[in-house]
Amino acid sequence: MTTCPTHQNSTPPTPTMPHSNRAGNLVCKGCAARAGSAEERRSHHCPCCGERYTSGCTGRPRRRTCHRCGTLDTHTGQWLPPTDPIADLLSGHTRPSPWLGAWKRAAASFGQDIAHHLRHVTTEIDQTHLYGEIVFGGAGLTIRYADGRFEAASDCPHRAECRFGRVWTPVLVCEDLLDIRLNGPGPRASACDRAHRHAQAPGPRDGGTR
């Protein structure tokens, strides 16, 4: 397709920011084209309507979007149809997110009612797991997922020394979540994820205070 999708059957509008042909000594930092040159015009202005791109030049990124015409692939010089993310979603052309897979697994393991209250958590520093929180009635229970397994969080047993640490217990079904919520971490719980921090905290012999 070599014709602008927006103006295939109509005349392009008058440019609101026409290119200036005045000579100058300035050059673009992105494409190194001299200001006012034909190269600068091609790199910074829509070839269909003449509208100037709001930022950068065609060297960054490869595809540039004119808010009047559509999208131009400057690598091939081809006009692309305007994007419609909703149509892509409804037609199944989008790639499912990793969190969607984890949510579906949670629905199968814990039930649709529990999964309905499961929200994605993106503030965790650990990048090896996907984190979620079951939120209901103002309370929450944090779980994490990796390699097909779920684990639920509990406060570190050494709460007096470790205020923010957590231990993680594997869970398979909803009853496992309930047991952890009522009785705390199970026998297969991991070590505290901040154990190294409070283990190295200075005690009275080191001149620190408790």
Describe the structure.
The protein has six helices and eight strands. With 210 residues, it is α+β, with helices and mostly antiparallel strands. The strands form two sheets. The chain has a five-stranded antiparallel sheet. It has a three-stranded antiparallel sheet with strand order 1-2-3, with no helix packed on it. Strand 2 (70-73) and strand 3 form a beta hairpin. Residues 200-210 have low confidence and may be disordered.
Write the layout of secondary structure elements.
Elements: H1 38-44, E1 63-66, E2 70-73, E3 78-80, H2 85-90, H3 98-110, H4 112-116, E4 118-121, E5 130-136, E6 139-146, E7 149-155, E8 166-171, H5 174-183, H6 195-199
